[in-house]
């Protein structure tokens, strides 16, 4: 099965991508993983991407697309894959469709993790990171024994800039601007399925798998 996973920041895409891919016995392919593999492997595309990243510039779409194409050409992706982080917009979705057509295949389903903005803010704004060991706690869901102190190493906890409420709300606005058209694009293609992404992780996974089974039927 060939699946694309989409959803706002804080929806739990990384966690669900791992569980869903494992349940389907297909590779989880994220753009972050692809970038790291190319850069650490010193590939030509990796060197090119690193030049942009070292300057603080965005890596152009054509470099990202070339990396995705290379990854989807690998043997483990021939029987299916789960894409997380690509495509991010309609032009990338159109490129992906064309790429898969050249491979003689197509997407089966796009899963959208659906969660409202206030829940995203609650999840992300409550995170606290240890300055010493990097462990992440949450003031509501996983609080340390002593406020502001890491249970694991005794280090001081802090709130990262990208976990501040105003930053999170800006990220959500950007997501809506870029991704709302993408959601409509896949809905028009008839392959979009929404999954309620609130509740325990295993329940969300179960809902996602039920959608996938229903789609396959």
TrEMBL record:
Subunit relationships: Monomer.
NMP: region residues: 30-59
Pathway(s) annotated for this protein in UniProt: Purine metabolism; AMP biosynthesis via salvage pathway; AMP from ADP: step 1/1
This protein's GO CC annotations: cytoplasm
Record has Secreted as a keyword: no
Domain text: Consists of three domains, a large central CORE domain and two small peripheral domains, NMPbind and LID, which undergo movements during catalysis. The LID domain closes over the site of phosphoryl transfer upon ATP binding. Assembling and dissambling the active center during each catalytic cycle provides an effective means to prevent ATP hydrolysis. Some bacteria have evolved a zinc-coordinating structure that stabilizes the LID domain.
Residues annotated as domain Adenylate kinase active site lid: 127-162
Domain of life (superkingdom): Bacteria
Amino acids binding ATP: 10-15, 127, 199
Residues holding AMP: 31, 36, 57-59, 85-88, 92, 160, 171
UniProt source species: Sphaerisporangium melleum
Region (LID): 126-163
Catalytic activity: AMP + ATP = 2 ADP
Assigned EC number: 2.7.4.3
Residues engaged in binding Zn(2+): 130, 133, 150, 153
Localization, UniProt: Cytoplasm
Database matches in Gene3D superfamilies: P-loop containing nucleotide triphosphate hydrolases (3.40.50.300)
EC category name: transferase
Summary of the function given for this chain in its UniProt record: Catalyzes the reversible transfer of the terminal phosphate group between ATP and AMP. Plays an important role in cellular energy homeostasis and in adenine nucleotide metabolism.
Name this protein carries in UniProt: Adenylate kinase
Family named by the database record: Belongs to the adenylate kinase family.
Classification via InterPro entries: Adenyl_kin_sub (IPR006259), Adenylat/UMP-CMP_kin (IPR000850), Adenylat_kinase_CS (IPR033690), Adenylate_kinase_lid-dom (IPR007862), P-loop_NTPase (IPR027417)
GO BP field: AMP salvage
Cited SUPFAM superfamilies: P-loop containing nucleoside triphosphate hydrolases
Keywords: ATP-binding, Cytoplasm, Kinase, Metal-binding, Nucleotide biosynthesis, Nucleotide-binding, Transferase, Zinc
MF terms in GO: AMP kinase activity; ATP binding; zinc ion binding
